[in-house]
Fold 3-isopropylmalate dehydrogenase.
Amino acid sequence: MTTSYRITLLPGDGIGPEIMAVARQLLDAVSSSHGFSLVYDVQPMGGVAIDATGEPLPNSTLEACKTADAVLLAAIGSPQYDSLPREQRPESGLLGLRSALGLFANLRPVKIIPALIDASTLKREVIEGVDLMVVRELTGGVYFGTPKGRVEAEGRVRAFNTMAYFDDEIDRIAKVAFELAVARSGRLCSVDKANVLDVSQLWRDQVTAMAADYPAVELSHMYVDNAAMQLVRNPRQFDVLLTSNLFGDILSDEAAMLSGSIGMLPSASLGSSGPGLFEPIHGSAPDIARQDKANPMAMVLSAAMMLRVGLQQDAAATALETAVDRVLAAGYRTGDLMSEGCTQLGCRAMGEQLLAALAG
Ligand SMILES: NC(=O)c1ccc[n+]([C@@H]2O[C@H](COP(=O)([O-])OP(=O)(O)OC[C@H]3O[C@@H](n4cnc5c(N)ncnc54)[C@H](O)[C@@H]3O)[C@@H](O)[C@H]2O)c1
Ligand SMILES: CC(C)[C@H](C(=O)O)[C@@H](O)C(=O)O
Ligand SMILES: [Mg+2]
């Protein structure tokens, strides 16, 4: 009998539906050529869900995610929702989903594809050979800490959030990072702001203590401001980068530019059990939405991560990644990566090239 997986698809907003359409075509092709099948359940999340139901993460969507084998998300968000109360915005739906699925570990690989070396704003000799992994804590820190809010007092307005971690929250994400470091080059750099923040001192203490269990891992610590600088000065010094929620959000967008475009970086969000969530690190790109300009590669590479990490379909995942490499090597580019001598394509045409490369 053919193995069949249930995938909940969340196309979301902006460029989301455009890049999801490409990923879906490729998933159909790669699953049939690799002897398994995917059954999709398309659900509203983000702005589209607000329009349909008044909430960014309807219960029916959350249930469909909880019962799936994996969840594939494109992107959510749009300026039209920015004036809603925070808990009703698209971004709150995404945070609620991550939290409800217990997805504390966000893996954001940054690997330079040789064909794109000259697409980066950084020099070839700086980025050549970069292959790093940001391990971002995803369900704690300042994104979720309480108290938070906005108050008026004595004629002034004050707004506040709380950056907080429990020791065991740090331990479980640190363990993911140490294990990954063992499987990769053995180098782990933990990023914090322990020179200023108590929460970062706890982070550093916990990570340091765990190092005793991993004698083969070479652990270093770096302040986040220095890490931001080192990422563009000499990114090859990094293998696994362990970060809290906010620091990882910022550093991964910065790291995306090593690869040439934020339209290239995929991610996997994992918990200790249950389905994983796979999504590009970029957003809904409202500035290019509905213009057939989006780069679908981060989405396709997220689908590949879903196949490999979520469904253990390693060969199919590699086939998608190889298709991306081939199309780039042949000189096809979406606008975000365009350079002289290359052929510019829209999102749909890029999808066609990827399909052809997958078949060839
Ligand atoms: N996981 C998510 O769904 C997610 C992630 C980040 C931001 N957002 C949301 O997206 C909205 C827009 O945020 P933003 O503008 O700060 O970030 P963004 O990532 O959407 O866009 C930043 C810039 O990168 C470009 N870009 C992004 N993805 C691209 C792609 N695939 N191909 C070509 N160009 C691409 C955009 O055109 C834009 O110029 C906001 O509502 C934000 O909250 C959602
Ligand atoms: C949209 C937003 C909530 C999200 C985050 O900050 O985690 C995004 O920027 C990301 O990187 O996935
Ligand atoms: Mg982000």
User: Anything to note?
Assistant: The chain has a mean pLDDT of 97.
